[in-house]
Structures are given as C-alpha cells and as structure tokens.
C-alpha cells in the first residue's frame, strides 16, 4: 500500500466524528484532518459580518489563513494555521455556530475546499467534515457517514461540555444541535448528506469502540481487497469467478443422485443490512463465513441429528439474496449426494447454521434479529419421489 489514500468521514454535529476519525487515523497510522476546525477558525476570526463582505475582500481575508498539518508527539496530527496550532478557543458552542454560518458563503467554502484538497495531496489521511465524501474527496477509498438521533448527540455533547468544566444546559445544547442540523443539511451549497457510495453507520446505540471496529473492518475490506487482487494467483480453483467460495460437485456421474434445498430468512434492521451489504460489520465478511458454516453443517449433520446416516456429501452450497423489504437475508442451501438416503436434513441443517452464523456475525450491532421460515423447498431422488414447496 504505497500510494496515498483518503478516507472520508462526514456527519452531523455531535455524532462523535472527531474522536472516531482521530482514532481511526491513529489505528491506520495516517494523518487526521479536522475540516470543521478550519471553518471554526474562520468563523471566529471573521465573525457573522463575513456575510456582508464583498466577494473579493472575503477571498483576500481567507487567503491570509494558511493551514498546514504537523506531526505532534506520540504520532498525533496537529492542524496549524499560519504555522501555529489551532487552539482550544475554537471548541466553544459559539465558534460552532459561527462556523456553520460562514460555511454557507460560497467564496469561503471554495477557498477552504481547495486548501483541504492540497492538504490531502500525496498524504494518506482520514478527512472529517460535512462534504468530504460528496465534494472535497470524491475519489476517497472509503467513505463513511455517521449519524445518530439528535437527543443522543445532544446528550454526548452535554456530557462533553460538563467534563470540560463548562456550564451547560441540556435543552440549549439540543436546540443548538437541531438548529445546526437544519443549517448544515438545508444550505444550498454542499449540504450535509451522505455520498451515494458512503457506508452509513448509525452510532445511536453503539459505544465508540464498537463503531471503531465497524470502521476499521470496513477500511480493511476496502484496502485489503484491492491488495489481494494484485497478489492472487491466476486460476485459483477454490474461488469462483465472482470471488465467492464454492464446493466442487464430484458426484454428477453417479446414478442414485439426490438433491435437497432448504431456505431460511434472517430479518434485521435496515442499518444492520446496510452494514452487511457494505462488508462493514465488526466480525468481517458475514456471507462468506455463513457460507462456509452452512457447508460444514451439511457435512456434519449425521453427528447432530440422532437417526441420520453419515453421508459422503458430493456438493453443498449456500446462496444468499439480500432483500430491502423487509430488510432481510434470504438464504437457500443446496446439498447433493449419491447414496441410499436423502439429504433433506443436511439441507435444513445447512440453512439453519448459516442463518445462525449471520446472527453471530452481526449480533454486536443488533440483538433482536429474527430467524424465520426455515423449511425444505425442494428434494429429488429416492423412493418418495420429488417434492417442491408451494
Ligand atoms: O464538525 P464541526 O462541528 O467542528 O463543524 C463546525 C461547522 O463547520 C459545521 O456546523 C458546518 C461547518 N463545516 C462545513 O460546512 N463543512 C465541513 N467540511 C466541516 C464543517
């Protein structure tokens, strides 16, 4: 991974972006760019009157703020303005409000966006803000959009202010958050919204460690896959063309061929499904692991179901279909054997274990997923003939 890459993290005020972006950058050993700090610096320095300045004058004033990134002690990254670290004075609610106000000015935005792109040139970084994925770094290797319910964000910000020894009133903080949301999401220019290819993470019910695991896993999936593409040997036979795992059918030529297929549905929330679809769940590639688990279950069914015969399974596979309505994964197992007994139980076990594996892989983000509709949908071969579910 010698080429520089950018990871973007956008989201509303108080969602925990700064902490997570900083931790993610530290874990990956790359720079961290807090673009909100740039808007705060200009907001504080220019004040609300910036809106009344003629364009050229505003451009001239913006040009006086030269931003740079410097490596601090312990590998942290410090944002500097005119060679001096940006200070704590920008961390007040007033500075946040002013930042949000000046962020609506086209000249100021374009000057800061140019500066941000320059900071990202040739440097790997996690860039945090409102328009990182949509505008400033459209080609980022991974884009995240963090969100959380306004009450949760207000609670976090409220506690943060108290911890810093500042006076705070919860309702004021909540109103402030709601107002900032309206301003940031509703403005005409580069409004806060997820990039179409962003990974959406709802942090309302997750602690920062759990969110960080989701982010790290997703970044590794994005960067690792590209790396693997270069390294993979051509003609690697246990990978299908699309990269999924497949067991080779060795029984096609035998006469007493039996096939069974079973289905199960795992219902989950839309946000869990989104993480699964984007390969961003904390334990890794859910469907690949569920597939292997299902195949193993088919082969070991005789050990678990008391009156089942041991069978030499010729082929076992699990196929998945991701459905948005209701948010769920439909999975179907298929097991084939050449033998004297059917493979319905193998197919049913494969579907159930694959479904339970999906639950296991995703339970860190959702505990109330429902596994349902486990049933045999097809069987062929044997004395009782063929069966196909309605
Ligand atoms: O992330 P923050 O709270 O420090 O940001 C302060 C304000 O700056 C935010 O309300 C909107 C603005 N901002 C922006 O418009 N674009 C960015 N990339 C970052 C911040």
Characterization of the model:
The structure is a single chain. With 390 residues, the chain is an alpha/beta fold. It folds into two domains: 6-231, 3-Layer(aba) Sandwich (Rossmann fold); 256-388, 2-Layer Sandwich (Alpha-Beta Plaits). It has 13 helices and 13 strands. Strands 2-6-1-7-8 form a five-stranded parallel beta sheet. The model is unreliable at 225-243 and 250-255 (pLDDT under 50). The structure holds 2'-deoxycytidine-5'-monophosphate. 2'-deoxycytidine-5'-monophosphate binds next to helix 2, helix 4 and helix 8.
Q: Which helices and strands occur, and which strands form pairs?
A:
Elements: E1 6-10, H1 17-28, E2 31-34, H2 35-46, H3 55-63, E3 67-71, E4 77-81, E5 84-85, H4 93-102, H5 106-119, E6 125-129, H6 132-136, E7 142-147, H7 150-163, H8 170-186, E8 199-202, H9 208-231, E9 257-267, H10 270-277, H11 286-299, H12 301-304, E10 313-323, E11 328-338, H13 344-362, E12 370-380, E13 387-388
Parallel strand pairs: 1-6, 1-7, 2-6, 7-8
Antiparallel strand pairs: 3-4, 4-5, 9-11, 9-12, 10-11, 12-13
Helix pairs in contact: 1-9, 2-4, 3-5, 4-8, 7-8, 11-13
Bound molecules: 2'-deoxycytidine-5'-monophosphate.
């Amino acid at each position: 991974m010698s080429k520089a890459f950018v990871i973007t993290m956008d989201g509303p005020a108080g969602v925990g972006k700064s902490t997570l972006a900083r931790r993610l950058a530290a874990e990956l050993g790359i720079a961290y760019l807090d673009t909100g700090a740039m808007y705060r610096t200009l907001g504080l320095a220019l004040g609300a009157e910036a809106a009344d300045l003629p364009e050229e004058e505003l451009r001239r004033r913006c040009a006086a703020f030269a931003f740079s990134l410097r490596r601090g002690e312990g590998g942290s990254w410090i944002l500097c303005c005119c060679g001096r670290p940006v200070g704590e004075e920008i961390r007040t609610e007033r500075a946040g409000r002013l930042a949000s106000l000046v962020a609506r000015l086209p000249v100021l935005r374009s000057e800061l966006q140019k500066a941000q792109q320059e900071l990202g040139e040739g440097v790997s970084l996690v860039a945090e803000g409102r328009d990182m994925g949509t505008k400033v770094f459209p080609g980022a290797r991974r884009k995240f959009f963090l969100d959380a319910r306004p009450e949760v964000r207000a609670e976090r910000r409220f506690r943060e202010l108290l911890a810093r020894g500042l006076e705070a009133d919860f309702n004021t903080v909540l109103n402030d958050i709601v107002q900032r949301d309206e301003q940031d999401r509703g403005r005409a220019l580069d409004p806060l919204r997820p990039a179409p290819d962003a990974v959406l993470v709802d942090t309302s019910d997750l602690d920062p460690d759990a969110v960080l695991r989701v982010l790290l896993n997703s970044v590794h999936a994005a960067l690792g896959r590209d790396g693997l593409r270069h390294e993979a040997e051509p003609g690697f036979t246990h990978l299908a063309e699309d990269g999924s795992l497949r067991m080779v059918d060795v029984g096609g030529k035998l006469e007493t061929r039996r096939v069974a297929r079973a289905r199960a549905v795992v219902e989950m929330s839309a946000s869990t499904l989104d993480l699964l679809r984007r390969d961003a769940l904390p334990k890794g590639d859910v469907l690949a692991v569920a597939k292997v688990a299902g195949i193993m279950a088919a082969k070991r069914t005789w050990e678990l179901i008391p009156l089942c015969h041991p069978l030499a399974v010729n082929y076992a596979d699990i196929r998945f279909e991701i459905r948005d309505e209701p948010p769920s994964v439909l999975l179907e197992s298929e097991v084939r054997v050449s033998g004297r007994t059917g493979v319905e139980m193998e197919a049913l076990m494969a579907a159930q274990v694959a479904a339970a594996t999906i639950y296991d892989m995703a339970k860190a983000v959702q505990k109330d997923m429902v596994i349902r509709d486990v049933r045999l949908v097809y069987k062929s071969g044997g004395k009782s003939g063929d069966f196909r579910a309605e």
